[in-house]
Fold this protein.
Amino acid sequence: MGEETKVQLALDFMNLHRALKVAGEAVTTGPVWLEVGTPLIKAEGMKAVTQLKKGFPDHIIVADMKTMDAGGPEVEMASKAGADVVCVLGAADDGTISEAVEAAVNYNSKIMVDLLGVREKVTRAKELEALGCHYVALHVGIDQQMKGESPGEIVKELSKNISIPLAVAGGITSETAAEHVRNGASIIIVGGAITKAENVGKATSDVFAAVRELKTVPSSGFKRYGPSEIRKALERVTPPNISDAMHRKGSMEPLEVVMPPGHKVIGKAVTVRTLDGDWAKSVEAIDLAEPGDVLVIDARPGKQAIWGELASNTCKQKGISGVIIDGAARDLPAIRKLGFPVLARHFIPGAGDPKGHGEIGVEITCAGQKVRNGDWIVADEGGAVVIPQEKAVEIANRALDVKEKESRIRQEIQDGSTLSKVLDLLRWEKVG
């Protein structure tokens, strides 16, 4: 089974020149199927299909049209442009599927049906086979992957219930590909694990080795994390990666940062609201915090310090990750020498008194961001971001996606391009 398995590369780019470059690096390793991803088709049209077929005539070209209606015309269009396989959605009406199959027969192509969004996958897969489809694809979409979802055991169930080849897609790497082949997949669809790798050829070769030899081959870092691995995922990304993943949200206003070079603060927030100069609740919160937590304190406007070296020393001994203060701290030289991360509006000598006003564990506003007890905080020398706790898995994975894409862009710049050329900025500038 392993030797017969196909590897399909999803070229989900917005710019054709980048897709062609990556495809050229990938095909040197084996007979990879080249998928013209939906983003690429929407950005470039059928030209993308034609150019991929022209550039790589000996390779199967898959047009991921995600057709939901007008099955005949869309399959005809893609087939005439050079597609050997055209993807339609399994959620489409049977009439749409039948028209797609008829057009494929007329124009010498084949139909792959994507089960994305289909609830009863086994039942629908049987129906699609009866309608004459050539392949069925079990697809865990990008947005589902970001929440930690994966193809899972359904691969085995599907493969037992259909006789046409089963394709599997959804965050697959050289570390996970063999498992899906063992469970019955005939086509392994890989995207980011190859397209975002610094060495596309090696990443592709690793996937081929995995499916042919049915073994786990270490991946170059591409991975999706689950709920128990949030901290591990956040250790791999930066606050700017996270802000990009949150559509430029979550960034705290500028704060003065006292932190050892290269250090990063990561942890769940323990929130404190106190009066300016009243440092009692801030110190009491240290006793309630767990190792790895981050104290986040609203002490505006900050005319008197509510934090200093002794509180920092206590936190360091307990294993608290850091403290963020929308207000004032003091003992700057001592804190800097101690090496405990403190982000504050400013540092002043004068402190207030421990009167005990305020609350711990309530929603606060700190440096322009709402922060709830349990939200995730990530900070480094460049600033801090807040991640809502209920979206932590998704945002951590999306931030990794941002980082991985940047790594590929960085490699293209090192190969002699420029940022504006890689991103084709002039083309994508907003009109009006």
About this structure: The chain has a mean pLDDT of 93. The longest strand covers residues 265-273. The chain has 19 helices and 18 strands. Residues 229-393 form a domain with the Glucose Oxidase; domain 1 fold (CATH 3.50.30.40).
